[in-house]
Amino acid sequence: MVVSVHHYELSESADESDFRAAVAEAERRNLFERVPGLIEYRIGQGIKGDRAGRFAAIWIYESKATWEDVWGPVDDPKPKSEYPDAWLVWEDDLLAPILAENPDRIEYTSYELVADSSEP
User: What is each CA distance from 97 to 2, 14, 18, 47, 119, in whole angstroms?
Assistant: First the structure.
């Protein structure tokens, strides 16, 4: 599996209700279910630590191969023009108006799992 952690910083003109509304709209439109290889996601708001009060998402992909099919290999990422349509709606239509920066410039890290408590 591959897990990507995305950190979201809201613009000064946006608040938490705007972010929650964007997530709700994405879910209503089944955008996340239409990203190939994405098998699970979690979106939360920090309650303690450096990111308290701020939002982050955890995107879980079936495998490194499926993650690369969507985003390209680490050393040769796909251009935005090749992103899944559903992801473009999420980023460009729902997130971009409320984020402090371009959604393609958010802080994130993708991890290939080395241990997983859900496996026997």
Answer: 28, 8, 10, 24, 39
How far apart (Å, rounded) are the C-alpha atoms in residues 108 and 5? 5
CA 33 to CA 50: how far, in whole Å? 30
Number of Cβ within a 10 Å radius of residue 36: 13
pLDDT at residue number 103 = 93
At position 74, the amino acid (one-letter code) is V
Closest CA to 87 of 65, 106, 74: 106
> Per the structure block, which two tokens stand in for 47?
């309650």
Comparing CA positions, the residue from 115, 108, 18 lying closest to residue 57 is: 108
**Helix, strand, or coil (residue 98):** coil
Q: What is the pLDDT of residues 22-35, one digit of tens each?
A: 999 999 999 999 99
